[in-house]
Every structure is written in C-alpha cells, then in structure tokens.
Amino acid sequence: MNELLALIVAKYNFWLYIILMMIGLYAMIAKNNLMKKLVGMNIFQTAIILFYVSIGYKHGATLPIIQGGHGTHDAVIHAADYINPLPHVLMLTAIVVSVATFGVAMALCVKIYQRYQTLEEDELRIRLSEK
Amino acid sequence: MKFLGLVIVCLTGGLLLYGTMDLPDWGDPASPASTHLSDYYIEHIVEETQVPNLVTAVLADYRGYDTMFETAVVFCAGLACFLLLRDFRPGKNRYYRHIPTGVMLHFKNPETRMIPGNEFEHMDKDWVPSDIIIKTVCRILIPFIQIYALYVVAHGDFSPGGGFQGGVIFGSSLILMAISYNLKTLLKRVTEKFLSIFAATGVLIYVGLGVLAVIMGGQFLDYGMLAPLVPWDPGHVRALGMLGVEIGVGIAVMAVMVIIYVNIVSEGRHDEGL
Fold first, then answer.
1. How far apart are CA B92 and CA B94, in angstroms?
2. pLDDT tens string A40-71
3. Residue of A nearest to B235 (CA)
4. I need a surface site. Which of A29, A33, B174, B219 has the fewest CB within 10 A?
C-alpha cells in the first residue's frame, strides 16, 4: 500500500490527467447528445494538453526565455536552468487548432439541427431512416 | 450502452494508470523528454537565432513548416464555417428600430425600405436592448484588451508572447463587443469582407516571408537571407523575420476567430442570433 502511495505522489500529474481524460472519453461514448459528445472531446483534448505541458516541467528550472538574451551576452547557458520548450510549442499550436476545429464541429451541429430539428443521436437515427 | 461504456472507460483508465509506472516522475530533470533535443535547443538557440524566447524560436524557426500549416489549418477552419453556414438568402421581413424611443417597426412588404440613419437603424427580430452597465464597462475595457493583444504580438520574439496568443486576445475583444452591444455593431466596424481579406492576408504574410527567403537565395523560411532587406539591424534579422511571421499568424487567428463566432451565433444569417 505504501508503495502505491509513493507511486501516486511521484506521478500525481499523470494520475490526474488520466482521470480527466477518462471523464472526456466516457462522455464521448455514453452521452446521446452531440453537443455533450463535443464537450467530452474538448475535455479529452484539454487533458492531453495538460499532460504534454507537465512533461516539459523540470524541478528548479525557470521559463524558457533566456535571461539577458537580448543583446550581447557571453554567459554559458545550462539546459537544467530552463524548462523544456518543445511541449509548450506543440501545445501552443494545438490549443488554437482545437478551438478552430471545435468551431467547425459546432457549425456541423448547427447544420444538423437545421435539417433534422434534433441533436439527440437516437432521434437522429430514426429521422435518417425515415428519408 | 452506458454500462458497457463505463466498463470500457474503467478498463482503459486502469491500463493507462498501470502504464504510468514506467513514466518519469513529475518534474524529473533527467526524464527522456528533457535530455536529448530540448538541451540542444536551450543551449544553442541564442547563438543560432538571436531570439531569447525559446518557444517562439522553436515555433517559427526550427518548426517553421509545422506552424505554417497550423496557420493554414486555422484558415481552413474559418473557411469551412463560412461555407457550411453562410446564408445569402435575403430576409423577407424587415425590422427597424427608432433609436430615441426604442420602438421596433416591422415591415412585411420587402419592397418598402427605410434609410437607416440617426433616427432609425436596421434591426432584427431577436434584438434585445443591452444593459447600460455592461455596455459601459465593455466600452472602457475593449481598447485596453486590444492594446494588450498588440503588446503580446509585438513581444513574440523577445519576451513571453506570440502571434497565436495575441491573435486570440484581439479576436476575443471583438467578440466581446458583439456580445455586449449586438452583432450589427460589430459587423458595421469589421465587415465580412475585411475579415476574409485579413484571414487570407495573415497566411499570405507567413508564406510570403518564406518565399522571399527563397527569392533572396536561401531556403524556404530561412529568415537569415532577408538581411539585405533590413539594413539597420543585421544581427537580429532572424528575430525580425520571426516577428513578421508572428504578426501574420496573429492577423489570421484574429480574423478566423471572429468569422467562426459570427457565423455560428447567427446560423450564417449575420443578424442578431444569440
């Protein structure tokens, strides 16, 4: 039991993100309403983004902006002093792209509602088979 | 179905949690993610690109292609929203509001028109009067939000900031205007044509800087080749190239955010809607 507790304390970030991810996944599988599915997908995406950002963190390191980097400087830069910039770059673009794709998904929902007057999946299936 | 979903989710979650045993500890400096490539970036970026903001340097220089196509994805999302939703059919009924009294006039005959001016303005059926407190607060806040957005874009290369973030802040200030006043007020200031041209211009600035580098004899997006065009600061030409690219990204993201919002809230009719 103590080993499990030590494991959780050392990697609590991953535990939190996996729980968040599973909430999103459950919403995508079990909810009937298309908007709720989309919200679940957004929760899932946010968990992935948090996961990546947490990978970039290092103990005792600061923001990935070189101090005194503007202008001439001769000081040696130690990699351990700055957190990993790579996950931040990937997630920076992922956030904006996820907002844009969410917009497209909502546009599709609006179109579906205009044609079938519903966003519930089972009703949609009935209306689709009627035509 | 719900029970089956719960079982699947619990199973997946359990397997993922079991998998975390092999992952590095939280904040471990010796984790695989921070020992190979990122060390090279942190130690060599300033001498190679003269940009102290590592995130921007990796974003616009080492991974310039990637960011260019991310911008293209954002542009395509705006285009998709426009093509899916935009409704060009003219409304049958016309509504006008008498500004001093707030009385709404409903014209059923589409032939009769009024000229909107100081007394009457063109309105929609869903129009609701906006609250004076919200209006005043937003009126004071919006210019500062926009100045801050420009500040964030301008600091893309030397301190925290960048085109994506600044663009989103600027776009959200415009969306705030549409929420606190009404959609017509926003579309009077930033028309659809303006937004479409800006979304395309942003991507064009990015690609144009890359092509300019090719014309100057370098490789695509090799900002160092732009040195003859910026005579005053040859040491920082890569930083200036990245700033230009970030401005392009900011413009594209700002316009696309507003296009998506305007089309979704009004179902493409560009009237009051939400």
1. 7
2. 999 999 999 999 999 988 888 888 888 876 66
3. A71
4. B219
